[in-house]
Amino acid sequence: MSQLLNELATIAGPGGLLTGDEVSSRASGIWRSDGIQAQAIVRPRDTEQVSRILKLCNKAGQSVVTHGGLTGLVEGAISAPDDIALSLERMNQIEDVNVVDRTMTVQAGVVLQAIQERADDHGLMYPLDIGGRGSCTIGGNIATNAGGNRVIRYGMTRDMVLGVEAVLADGTVVSSMNRMIKNNAGYDVKQVFIGSEGSLGVVTRAVLRLRERPRSQATVLAALDGFDKVGQLLKTMDAKLGGALSAYEVLWNEFYRLVTTPPAKQKPPLSQDYPYYALIETMGGDPEGDHARMESALAEAYEEGLVADAAVATSEAQRQEMWAIRDDVEQTTHFDPNFIFDVSMRLSKMEGYVEEVNRRLTATFGDYTNFTFGHIGDGNIHFAISAGDSEESAREGVERAVYEPLHAIGGSVSAEHGVGLEKKPYLHLSRTSEEVALMRTLKRALDPKGILNPGKIFELAPG
Amino acid sequence: MSQLLNELATIAGPGGLLTGDEVSSRASGIWRSDGIQAQAIVRPRDTEQVSRILKLCNKAGQSVVTHGGLTGLVEGAISAPDDIALSLERMNQIEDVNVVDRTMTVQAGVVLQAIQERADDHGLMYPLDIGGRGSCTIGGNIATNAGGNRVIRYGMTRDMVLGVEAVLADGTVVSSMNRMIKNNAGYDVKQVFIGSEGSLGVVTRAVLRLRERPRSQATVLAALDGFDKVGQLLKTMDAKLGGALSAYEVLWNEFYRLVTTPPAKQKPPLSQDYPYYALIETMGGDPEGDHARMESALAEAYEEGLVADAAVATSEAQRQEMWAIRDDVEQTTHFDPNFIFDVSMRLSKMEGYVEEVNRRLTATFGDYTNFTFGHIGDGNIHFAISAGDSEESAREGVERAVYEPLHAIGGSVSAEHGVGLEKKPYLHLSRTSEEVALMRTLKRALDPKGILNPGKIFELAPG
Question: What residues of chain A, 274 to 313, have a C-beta less than 8 Å from chain B?
Answer without folding.
Answer: 282-286, 289-290, 292-293, 296-297
